[in-house]
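Technical note accompanying the year-one report. For the benefit of new consortium partners, we illustrate the data format agreed upon in the data management plan: each record pairs a sequence with a structure-token string. No post-processing was applied to the example shown here.
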Amino acid sequence: MIRKLPPELIREIAAGEVISGPADVVRELLENALDAGATRLYIELWGGGLDKILVRDNGLGIPKEELELALEHHTTSKLTDLQNIRTLGFRGEGLWAIRQAAQVRLTSRPPQQLGGATLTAFQDKTELHEHPAPAGTQVEVTALFCHLPARRNALEAPAVEARKVVHLVSRYLLHRPEIALRLVVDGEEKIAHAGGGFAEVVKLLWGSVVANRLLPLEAAEGPFTLRGLLSRPELSRPRRDRLLLALNQRPVEWPEPLLQAVLAAYKELLPTGQFPVGVLNLELPTEHLLVNTSPDKSRVRLIRPEAILGFVSQAVQGLLSAHPLARALPEPTPLTGPAPVQRARFPRLRYLGSFRELYLLAEAGDELYVVDQHAAHERILYEELSRRYLEEPPLELPHPELLSLSLGEEINLAERLEALEQAGLQIEPFGPGRYRVRTIPAFLAGYPSLVGEVVKGSLGASSFAVAWRTVLARLACLPAIKAGHPLASASAQALLDALAGCELPWVCPHGRPTVLVLGEGELARRFGRRGVRAVVEPSPHRTE
């Protein structure tokens, strides 16, 4: 039987299409504020946004006679033509969907209006009060999905939902660095930006190390303009999560042809599978852009893209050619001849000699081993560090080390405190964005200059385990025997013995082989001998 759905069910379905969590609420309110010309934004979050979301701006405001209309379905001041979309929002259902999902308190006053008004709304109920108010708009959203327990239970933990909001706000701020913005989560200030340029925002959110490796880009040709920052080739990532694009100020996913145009401009400067880091704002006429009109407006399509792709490619090539750039190391290629050792047990090696003061030559059974002394020493030191931080108690610093952390590092710190303490690092807050290190692993004793690098390194990567392995690998690399350092026979043999005692002696901490092997059979084949032992005892009158 076909029947019309009841109004309350229609509202629940429609609200879920637009609002699936706190980040969606913040996105709708943030876009409304930016469309209203706001230059200052204040965002407050409680309970991951489930309990309360507050967004305040200094935009144009809403006249009091239009407040009730603003929360109705498909009402907007932005859209007149789908072929000419110039605003972030245009569907006219963001506020209405929020009203179906939570309780809304909307306060607004245009600068020219005498006095403001507040509209309280939840589903079909509304109440309007007039009163004095500052210019601009404030929206307070509370009790998200409280009347829809299934939807609320589907949300993640408040800390996870809050992290989604932090990432969302960071993304918009990276593309709109001129905006002054504050984000407060459960009473703690997460972002405080007074307005500025791309470099200031990148330094705030990604840290000064990344910011210092980005090149400013500004190009214009006809109706196209491209502004932002792109990284030097030595700063790249295996994912494109830090290569961000906005089209006509809308943060979007990369259209694949546009991404390939940027990568092609780097040519061989980037290894295969690596992506640059950066923030790009591309402005183009609206007739060249088709915005997805579904609630997810982050996917767009370029219309007549040839001229756009050519402009972007030339702009990036021009940027790179204007700076002296070191070429990135190529990806390692498969070895021919001697191959990396792949065995379960590492043999006892007997030292024979060395080549170029880097490679140790050794034998075991009927095989010749070539050992990279630097890579082998790295593996030995790495496993020693891996044992020491677990076995030795941490040391308390006589004078705590003070550090400034980026927003991403602060987020990771909150998640990794327990793992850091187990590693010997006790870190505590010491003011906004600043922290002090109270204890360190014992192996850092006598190396105070490395404390900051170790802490920041442990807050990188996708997980603590990956980040900590990277830190230990870096610390093992620093003192490892370098190329050109000659070893006496006794020292070389001691190095080979120590390598044999490692849990994973076959590779260095960075994944490079420590040992290559060449069997006697392969040597015989290459010398044209008939068998592995096609050798006779030498006589005084015979030569081979």
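Partners are asked to follow this layout when depositing records. The longest helix spans residues 373-391.
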